[in-house]
Amino acid sequence: MLDLTGKNALVTGIANNRSIAWGIAQQLHKAGANIGVTYLPDDKGRFEKKVGELVDPLNPSIFVPCDVQNEAQITSAFEAIAQKWGRLDILIHCLAFADKEGLTGDFSAIPKAAFTQALEISTYSLVSLTRAAKPLMSQGGSILTLTYLGGVKVIPNYNLMGIAKAGLEMSVRYLASELGPLNIRVNAISAGPIRTLASSAVGGILDMIHHVEKVAPLRRTVTQVEVGNTAAFLCSDLASGITGQIIYVDAGYEIMGM
What we know:
alpha/beta; Rossmann fold; seven-stranded parallel beta sheet; 7 helices; 39% helix; NADP binding; NAD(P)-bd_dom_sf; fatty acid metabolism
């Protein structure tokens, strides 16, 4: 029943084969979507090569650089989509970053520069990409981002990213309200802790995973594929009545009090 055949999906944030974005891209492709991928450009082209080799089996028809701190690159990426596809149906936002100074020590000691950078990349980028995608979603669409429990509750060593995710979750709600009349839905998945390149920056990530495995109702954490399955559902017509929501895919951990 889950069919994305003919849908054009842009996936951001793939870094390696452990990325949640990679799990999402695979499941969208499996459901029949045409895949487009962005990568973070660097001087030596390492990310372009690494991400390009990884996503090659998905046969992406769009593969473009996009540094969300560079408005010109955002514009260029979506111009490429307009020329190649003519329209966009699905936007996957899997972008987050906080400097080590924002993830360790006292929260009150976080430098202003680290605070500003984290919110620009992790939170405002959803707004930037949505603004660029909006004109291309002429037939409606689905926008999906990734959040974490640390956006609503205090998680050790998450610090600044908690603020960024809280802002991201409210951005989902405001964007859903704005874009609803255009039949564009905006949702977020709050995934349980998974070992990824991004999560490795959070101190004690393995302890967090082991704790979830002991406490969560399913007595385990989740996989990238499970998050990808939920993403595919939320981007499909099966979820046509769902917008502005934070969907927890965390083996039930969020419901527990102790």
